[in-house]
## 1
Amino acid sequence: MDKTTIMNLMKEFFQSEFPIQGTELETTTDLLNDWFVDSLGVINTVLFLESRFSISIARADINPDNFQNIETLSDFVERSLG
């Protein structure tokens, strides 16, 4: 699966699960500061990623470097897919 496909799937997920009226979600939107309402959003995202991409996410992987935006999260998924 290529990065563009991963990013598109994530963008669809974020827009449907965490809609924010009047705000455009870009691949560089800061997910932790500008998109998620609370930590439950991070947990739901982890569950989505594990389910949709058949990857395992360790606690140590849930950090600002990986979850900063859709681009960094897509890079993480690509690495996890091997």
Note: Residues 3-17 form the longest helix (15 residues).
## 2
Amino acid sequence: MSPLPCPSRVELADITVRDGFQHEERWIPTSAKLWVLEELILAGYRRLEVTNLGNPKGMPQFADSDELLKGIRSSKRVEKQIGGVELTAVTIRERAVDRAIEARLEGWGPDRILMMVSTSASHMKKNSGLDHAGYWAEAERSIRKAHEAGIKVNGTVSTIWGCPIEGPTRLEDAVAFTKRFLEIGADDIEHADHDGSAPPNKVHDYYSMVLDAVPDPQKHVAHFHVTRGWGLANVLAALQAGIVRYESTLGGIGGQPANFFEGSPVAGTGKYYYQDPNNVGLVCTEDLVVMLDEMGIETGLDVDRVLATGRMVERIVGRRLRSETVKSGRIPKKPTGF
């Protein structure tokens, strides 16, 4: 019997405090965000997405971005580990990139920033306010400036498997966008299924195409949503294609930025794409970590601490979340006595 073709080790990033909390319609205290980041670091995470440096008027969950970045940099709980942790902030537009650079020069800014293109022209315009030509020009300037300040840049490619506005998209376009991002200097690429439209067979097809075009697996990060429940199936498909970097959120929370916050409408990114705004979220960190552990794939993480952190995140947001393993626990490794 042939073993399942998968990597023996993968690298996981957690993006709960940014992508996870951005869909929450009430304020998550800065102290709670900081605690989650600290716990993830103590569990072994070395890549974390912390905040969004765009204008907090439209996304008020990120009004504490400066305080949070300063807080994790100066945290006594993780002072021994923080030097080896890569902190990422989202900077969709150039003004946010400039803000990240200023913070970096002051000693507390992010190590890595994220810019994003959508293969869909409609989604590109809605997400950034620019067309493709305008955004590529802005991204090229921004990457050059960020590198001069010692900041890495992730280029995210979105609407790979479909667009919530335009419908079907072409995988070949996403491969071309990946290559273009790398040509203008991006350090790595996040390949994003932001609306949960990717079925596992097309995930395998796409990542096989991408690795043929750009064979270095360290250049690629898989980002799956679970709007239709396919998240972990898509992780398995990506593993079989050879992808070794993944990101997820505790409890599987997250999605499009909230357009209703603390009792009032806010801009967010406009009208929700989803029929049910509660049926959103990403691959669940707890379930992903436990699944990989059961598969014998090394992550370098403290699985039990990850589960404990997930249980606390449920208390922080005030509701039961998507994680099955938070509820059922790990598979017992010895007789239970029942």
Note: The chain has a mean pLDDT of 95.
